[in-house]
Design brief:
- The chain is of the alpha/beta class and 510 residues long.
- 49% of the residues lie in helices and 15% in strands.
- It contains 22 helices and 16 strands.
């Protein structure tokens, strides 16, 4: 397919939601780094895949969104969701070169590139950098995510081998998935004869085992494109400096907390590295970074300490996970970390009424616990990284977004009748995706249909599932009878009623 330029286009991409593309996410990340975030009125997502993120962010906010994905199947689905929400996003199936030259595009405050940079050609990278240079306003932000060179270095030869094998060794008619399966099987045969390359790179066998368990559609886009590069941070800086961009902060808030990612010795070493680019390169060595997701700014402006604190104090957050399900553990580059009860439990207790609170309000409430502003802010960063809480927007913005998000959610709930592909709904409070599986969406549909209790919700869901000759799976095993299936669904619906419904109401999804 010539129009695809070597990118996998005959297999659809997954229906993921990516919080790093949410402008509310970047506001906190920049403020924590001491940089003034821009007021975002217009935004763009290049290569939006199935369009879940861009549609959620368009429906959930007053921001004007534009974006492209050159796969017409992706763009068609994204435009269908856009039509349902009536949010007015401008979604195109143009390739990067054609889209970036559209004369009607506005200047942007935010440009997002999720899962694009590592998988496109040098030509398209140059087009994107030129686009950023022309269309990103001063003070504007770029989000970019990519495979990092350090953790992928020993995987590159194996990836190239599998890609070449799939292109020349699979019989005609086996299709892309057949080629991927054949390449994985051959790679395993290769590992079983103990080649010196595998001996010198001991982690490859484990990585190959994990690859075999992964979704083939995901692998097709992740590994089997013509263009694929594990990116060195300094090389990315060379590209982005041409567009006057400077690295500011990681998009994953957990990665901003050195204490859970770096040993004391590593922190001491990095403290002696004055060059900001070298700092990131050395840090990648310390943590063996596999995937980087981060924010770059055109002309970052540092905030004074008092301005930073005042801005952080106005950030609103709320719980998005049932308090009983939140563990006082998280994972950083150093492995699993236990969070301090004396700090985290009072904060979680204060937020357990599911009302939005500013960081300043949390600080005031924590004074009696001896928890200062710095500890409160760091705890918020960790809890957001754990996906236990989220930044929420002002009430007037929530009210403006709700009609649009209600329309998208109605569409996605009905879509779940026949598919489990999209595992989210959108909240007008967070302007982003909230995890919700297919069965849970059917429970919501049952409630909308007037069903009053969990048993009725279970029967409603089972009627839809059984009408398609499908079965309920529990612990990897199919449930064989209707009675057992309804009993299992009833147990799930009761748990849903107790844990999820209060949160969904607080998030204005219900």
């Amino acid at each position: 397919m010539e129009w695809s330029s070597g990118y996998v286009a005959d297999i659809n991409y997954t229906y993921g939601y990516y919080a790093g593309l949410n402008p509310l996410n970047l506001e906190l990340a920049l403020l924590y780094a001491g940089v003034k975030p821009p007021k975002i009125n217009s935004a763009c997502e290049l290569g939006f895949g199935q369009g879940i993120s861009i549609n959620f962010h368009s429906a959930g906010s007053s921001i004007s969104w534009c974006g492209n994905d050159f796969n017409p199947t992706h763009a068609g689905f994204a435009n269908e969701v856009n039509f349902e929400s009536e949010s007015g996003a401008h979604l195109s199936d143009d390739d990067f070169e054609s889209f970036c030259q559209q004369p009607e595009l506005p200047d942007f405050d935010f440009i997002g590139l999720h899962g694009v940079w590592s998988w496109i050609s040098e030509k398209n990278r140059a087009i994107i950098v030129e686009f950023i240079k022309r269309k990103l306003r001063v003070g504007g932000v770029v989000y970019v995510s990519y495979n990092s060179q350090n953790a992928w270095a020993n995987m590159i030869p194996l990836r190239d081998l599998m890609t070449y094998y799939a292109s020349v060794m699979e019989p005609s008619g086996s299709g892309r998935i057949g080629g991927i399966n054949g390449a994985l099987e051959f790679a395993e045969k290769l590992s079983n004869v103990n080649p010196q390359f595998f001996k010198a790179n001991g982690i490859l066998k484990g990585r190959l085992t994990r690859l075999k368990k992964q979704n083939r559609e995901y692998l097709a886009h992740e590994y089997f494109n013509k263009d694929w590069e594990a990116v060195n941070f300094a090389k990315l800086n060379d590209f982005f400096s041409a567009a006057k961009l400077s690295f500011v902060a990681p998009a994953n808030h957990l990665e901003a907390i050195n204490k859970i990612n770096l040993t004391d010795e590593q922190q001491d070493l990095l403290n002696d590295v004055s060059d900001p680019i070298l700092y990131q390169v050395v840090k990648d060595f310390c943590v063996n970074q596999q995937f980087r997701a981060e924010y770059w700014v055109k002309g970052p402006r540092k905030l004074s300490e008092i301005a930073q604190k005042n801005a952080l104090a106005n950030i609103r957050v709320m719980l998005i996970q049932n308090k009983e399900d939140i563990t006082l553990k998280t994972k950083g580059a150093l492995g699993e970390v236990t969070l301090k009860e004396s700090v985290y439990l009072p904060i979680l207790e204060y937020l357990s009424d599911l009302k939005p609170r500013t960081i300043g309000e949390i600080e005031q409430e924590m004074v009696s616990e001896g928890i200062d502003f710095a500890k409160v802010t760091q705890s918020i960063m960790v809890l957001i990284g754990k996906k236990s809480i989220a930044v929420v927007q002002e009430e007037k913005e929530i009210s403006k977004a709700k009609e649009k998000t209600d329309r998208i959610n109605k569409y996605l709930i009905e879509h779940a009748y026949g598919s489990k592909e999209i595992a989210y709904l959108v909240s007008p409070a967070t302007a982003g995706g909230i995890p919700l599986n297919r069965i849970q969406k059917m429970f919501l549909a049952a409630i909308k249909a007037g069903k009053k209790n969990p048993k009725d919700w279970a029967e409603f869901a089972w009627k839809i599932i059984s009408s398609q000759n499908q079965r309920i799976v529990n612990d990897g095993k199919e449930i064989s009878t209707a009675e057992e299936s309804i009993n299992h669904l009833t147990k799930e619906s009761r748990d849903f009623s107790k844990k999820q419904i209060p949160i969904l109401k607080a998030l204005n999804i219900m």
